[in-house]
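I would like you to help me understand the sequence and structure tokens below and explain how sequence relates to structure.
___
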Amino acid sequence: MKKNYILWLSVSAFIMLVLPWMAVTFANGDSGMAVCFLLFYGVNPIYSVIIGGFAGKNMKHLWSLPVISAVLFLAGTWMLFDMGEPDFMFYAAVYFVFGVFTMLFTSFIKNRTAYRQV
């Protein structure tokens, strides 16, 4: 359990901190902006849904994963781009909602199927 938590925290740090840093550092000009669009509109929302689904399997212990993922996104973008930019707070809130909604949905489905098996 603890190993899974540490693994997901590491993956969250990589996706939300390292990938934007790599986009800013290694991609030049317009290609860097295209990579950031792919991250903001593709990779990060999909990852938020995936981490929410994983957290929903054991919501009692893993409820903080969607929160941490959104906070790491906000910290990474504020460090790399513009500190205090409200658009990034909106993106973080959307990623948080995706993660929490998926977590609650997964937990509901898990509990419903467990109830039917009894």
Residues 18 and 29 are 19 Å apart (CA to CA). The chain has a mean pLDDT of 88.
